[in-house]
Amino acid sequence: GAVVSQHPSRVICKSGTSVKIECRSLDFQATTMFWYRQFPKQSLMLMATSNEGSKATYEQGVEKDKFLINHASLTLSTLTVTSAHPEDSSFYICSASFRLAGIETQYFGPGTRLLVL
Amino acid sequence: DAKTTQPPSMDCAEGRAANLPCNHSTISGNEYVYWYRQIHSQGPQYIIHGLKNNETNEMASLIITEDRKSSTLILPHATLRDTAVYYCIVRANSGSARQLTFGSGTQLTVLP
Fold it and tell me: Pairing relation of β-strands A10-13 and A112-116?
């Protein structure tokens, strides 16, 4: 149980285009999903917290107009990288919160590798 | 700032127990200890969590000291597929501190 999927697994795009990444909780409902970014040889950095039906909360330094997050249902959150540039090339990972017996645990998707040319 | 301190790397022989330490001397009473691991080019995988009692599941055991200032993750019989970066994270279960803050973790290499 507690499986999270991401699509696509990898994407290559031209500079200036937009890319949408989907994050789905497959066997549970997640009121909260999180988006992380990981550059090579670095740890995961939280970008934003996404709550179903409300606006996402972005971490300091993350541009909300560039990284659009939509959490339209309890099983789906999307991250759109708008006007992507080579410096946006990274490994993007989502997670979904699952609460069991009062304890909330985050389960992660497999990640999406973005390469902007 | 990361609330935990872990050794940057460790080696373990295949079939042996891997003991990964973590210091969290400033842990608060309402914070849990979570362990995740990340195999190269994959998303992190949840392993186990605990508050103050020792915990065991099908993947690992978590030993938390009585003062809760440190813990040890134990993989009882390490295999080559356990080679990964292991992250120890402390986090409250409610309120605004629900996010996970990843530090540098421990790179565990299981040797044949």
Answer: parallel
